[in-house]
Design goal:
alpha/beta, Arc Repressor Mutant, subunit A, 10 helices, 22% strand, DNA-binding, WH-like_DNA-bd_sf, WH_DNA-bd_sf, LysR_subst-bd
Amino acid sequence: MDSISQADLNWNLLRVFYMISEERSITKAARRLGLSQPSVSNALQKLEAQLDCQLVFRDSRHFELTTRGDKIFQECRDIFHSAERISLLVRDAETEERGQVRYQIISNLVSPLIDEAMRLFHHRHPSVIFKSEVQNSQAIVRMIQQGHVQLGFCLLARPLVNLPSIRLFREEFRVFCGAEHPLFGKETVELRDLRQEPFISFACATEGMGLEPMSVLREGTRLGNRINGLSTNTEEVRRMIVNGMGIGILPLAVAQDDIRRGELWPLKITDEPIGADVYLVHAAAEKLSASERKFVQTIEELLALYPDMV
C-alpha cells in the first residue's frame, strides 16, 4: 500500500492500540478506556486496516504483538509519554508563582547572602519580576512605614520597634583617605588625630536622621567637624575621598578594589573597629504579596542553613 502521511493517522485509534498493548488484553483496555469491548475490538481492526498490517496475534487464550505491532507500540509509548509530560508542564505553568518583588536597598551593598537568595528565588519562581530602587537607610524605613514599598535592605543601629527587622550580617567600615593625603600608607593612626581633618560625609549623617547608622558611626568616632563634601550615595562619597577632598567612612567591602589599586588607604585606628548591621526590614506579613512573603522566607531559609554567610 502507499505510505500513510502523519495527517492520515488516526490518533484516537493509536491510543486505543497503545492501551490494548499495555494491558495485554482487549477486555482490560476497554475497562481502562471506559468503552465497550466490541468498540475497542472494532478500533483495533480499523487501525490494522489503515496500516494494512496485522498488529496483534489474538485468540481466546493468547495475546501477542506482531513484530510490526511491537515496534508501533514502542513508538506510541514514547509519543503518549511525551504528551503526558506536556500536560504536566502546562499544569505546572498554571500554578507557577507570578508577581513582583519590589525592594529598596542602600547603595553598593555587597552581600553573598542577598545574591544567593535572589538566585535561589529566581530558580524556584522564574516568572516573578524583581524591581530594585536605591535609597539611604532612613528613606527606606520611611517608605516602608508609609506603605510605598514593602521590603528594604538597610543599615540600622538596632532593630526597629514598629517593623519586622531581620538581621542579616555585620558590615565592617573603615575610615579612608585618598592617595594624596598625608596619612596615606600610615600603619596606625590615633582617632583624635583625625577629628580636625576635612571630612566627606553621607548627607543623612548630617541631617539628624537617627535611624541611619552613618550618623551613629560619625557621632561615635566624633569625626566630621569640618565637612568638605556631602552625598547620599556611597559611590559619590568614595569618589570625593579618592580625589583627596577629605577622609571619610566607607564599607570595607566597597573599597577593596580601590585599596588594591592604591587609590584608597584604610586608616587603622587603634580604637574598636567600626561596624553596623544590615537588616531586611519589611511591612507586616499581611501587607506582603505572595511573592514578597516567599522571598522573605527564602532569606530566612538561607540564614537558618548558613548563619555565617554574609
